[in-house]
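Slack export, channel: ligand-projects

TW: morning all. Re-posting the request from yesterday since it got buried. We need the structure predicted with the small molecule present, not the apo form. The ligand is pyridoxal-5'-phosphate; the SMILES is in the block with the sequence. No rush, but it would help planning for next week.
GE: picking it up
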Amino acid sequence: MPDANLIDIRTAAADAGPIRFFDLETPKKMLRVDIEKRWQKILDHGAFIGGPEVGELEAQLASWAGATHALAVASGTDALVIALMGEDVKANDAIFIPGFTYNATANAVLVAGATPVFVDVDAHTCNIDVGHLEAQIDAVWKAGRLRPRMIIAVDLYGLPADYEAINRIAKAHGMLVLADAAQSFGGAQGGRRIGALTDMSATSFYPSKTLGCYGDGGAMLTDDAARFERWSSIRWHGTDAVKKESIRVGVNGRLDSVQCAVLLSKLTVFADEMKARERIAQRYRLGLGNAVEMQHVPAGSQNAWGLFTVMVDNRAEVMKKLQDQGVPSSIYYYKPLHQHLAFAAYAPKGGLPVCERLAERVLSLPMHPYLTDAQVDWVVVAVKGAV
Ligand SMILES: Cc1ncc(COP(=O)(O)O)c(C=O)c1O
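GE: finished. pasting the full token output, ligand included:
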């Protein structure tokens, strides 16, 4: 017989409606009038590509992040590819990436024509393991076939990677650092926001990201004016500033005015949404206590909470039990990248044991700014009951 308190929690959660894993509906309803107004303006001025919304968005993104330059691009993947193309990477350039991330990180390296070198991750933060990173860089130098060129650090689930250590390692080896901040826009470290923590950053505005548009989108940030000029040119087919001559190989990586308008509208509530994510994450952490292992957030890091992820041993059983209690959950990711067919040729000898173990244990719980306290409490009850 469940106790009265449990019945209260279940009732309050049910009153708040179904628990969504992500919530695209609430902000759409909240901002619909504003977005429609912005879209009507675009219909009137007709600049569907390169409209005033693009520059306005770029200025706001740079200002939010505390970076000098921001460039709006067509997706998070394009942001990574353009950043790599901007450094003119070649097949003998080694690009170090964590083995536990979305496939886009590795795809970008290969599409840009460079060579990925997989690095294991830390079992607690789920981000690149800086000790293994150093070992992999040393191994590449020793082998002499590739030149260590760049580190792409991924901020998994929204947690900034250890940029202090990564920047130091990169500097010691004359390498660059690209932050794959697709999941972490809105996060921070050491008092500086994502987008201003390293040489260059790439983020995604895929609809379910912390800042999402209504289709594909992304952005790139840097303090380096020359790098920004190269990116701007590559985004627009590699043309010069007046768009008359191709001065390098480029892509069509532009972000449509209508998507920029959505993002400008979303930015009006973004600071509040980030506060809500933090409040919800802390409620989860307090409620879950020691019942499950959770992604570790080091002191000084502000997780953007793109996802709230725990680690469990009996994952399939926990997922099923959660589903029975009306709690959706999801797995990011089922397999580390070096075990995917497309990237198997780059698998390190001996594999990546921490990535492999995490892939068996990670489970992401509902996370979005519109979860009510009652819903969070119900998820906590359901998780505790399921593990
Ligand atoms: C870590 C990471 N990198 C890159 C991407 C690619 O972003 P997009 O889907 O906008 O191309 C994603 C998207 O999920 C991601 O999670």
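GE: first-pass observations. The longest strand covers residues 147-154. The first helix runs from residue 4 to 15.
TW: perfect, thank you
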